[in-house]
Amino acid sequence: MAPQEASDGRFAVLPVRMIGSEAYPVETVHEIRIRPNKPRFPTANDGRTLYLKNIPVDSTEAHFRELFATLLGGQRQFESIAFENEAQTVLAVDPARATMIQGFAKKRKRGDVEAEERREEVAAQLPEIWTRRLQNSGSTATVLLVEEASVARVLKKIDRIHSGKGAQPIWGQGVDDKDVSPLSTPWIATHLRLSRADKLETKNSVHAFFSVFNRKEKEANELAKRLRNEPDEDGFVTVTKGSRNAPASRNEADEARAKMLQKEAKKREELKRFYRFQLREERKREQANLLKGFAAAQEKVAAMKEKRGKFMPES
């Protein structure tokens, strides 16, 4: 497949040699599909990002770092990779109606308070019981390169491989055992050992989880109370169903959030015109625009009258 086809949204197929192991001593070829990344919501780094599909199940960052070093002639062009099933670094907790609080809860103190909250969310994670995560079959990843020119170079290298001018890269070649923990029997044995988690460590994680849960639930309730008690620009108060603590549905919360956004935007606009001299200047501008429009209308009427006076009907 030619590089220009991949730039049109199609995938360029990169064949990778998979050396056989003791359990399966047969060499195979795995096809990784690659194209320039075009996400639904564009970002500043899209020009130097590649979207990968059908990555091997034993993929790690070290594997792709060596793979792109082979394609680009050095590791300096590879910056990072994000896998589809990558674990979240923060607590993925979503208590009822807690997502309503984004952007509307009371302003919290910065610095120490926010740092403490982040540490609390990290502590809420249960202990890891796998030394190495396997990828799902056919899963995807995005690779961030150092510069945009490297994207075209990768696609050009794939084209050379298909034309027979380049050798197929070998999966795992150059990967140091120190960077990647082994699979097979040692991997399973380590998993069984880590599954017997320390009781004190597990207890602390559970306590931290409920602390974060309760904090987010409290913030959601405070927001719901604010929505019930604060009238909108027309003087009406948001009426909600369900419990006394929060709206009954996400739709109601979204509608209330949109109204609050509009109200806060209007307040910010009014603050810009707070001073009297600003109001006077604005009135002067409005008056000047009215006079200008009136003068233009007079000229238009005069031109129409002049044109009508020169009109001579046929006899």
From TrEMBL:
<dbReference type="Pfam" id="PF17799">
    <property type="entry name" value="RRM_Rrp7"/>
</dbReference>
<dbReference type="GO" id="GO:0006364">
    <property type="term" value="P:rRNA processing"/>
</dbReference>
<dbReference type="GO" id="GO:0000028">
    <property type="term" value="P:ribosomal small subunit assembly"/>
</dbReference>
<feature type="domain" description="Rrp7 RRM-like N-terminal">
    <location>
        <begin position="11"/>
        <end position="164"/>
    </location>
</feature>
<feature type="domain" description="Ribosomal RNA-processing protein 7 C-terminal">
    <location>
        <begin position="195"/>
        <end position="313"/>
    </location>
</feature>
<dbReference type="GO" id="GO:0034456">
    <property type="term" value="C:UTP-C complex"/>
</dbReference>
<dbReference type="GO" id="GO:0032545">
    <property type="term" value="C:CURI complex"/>
</dbReference>
<dbReference type="Pfam" id="PF12923">
    <property type="entry name" value="RRP7"/>
</dbReference>
<dbReference type="InterPro" id="IPR040447">
    <property type="entry name" value="RRM_Rrp7"/>
</dbReference>
<protein>
    <recommendedName>
        <fullName>Ribosomal RNA-processing protein 7</fullName>
    </recommendedName>
</protein>
<dbReference type="InterPro" id="IPR024326">
    <property type="entry name" value="RRP7_C"/>
</dbReference>
<dbReference type="InterPro" id="IPR040446">
    <property type="entry name" value="RRP7"/>
</dbReference>
<comment type="similarity">
    <text>Belongs to the RRP7 family.</text>
</comment>
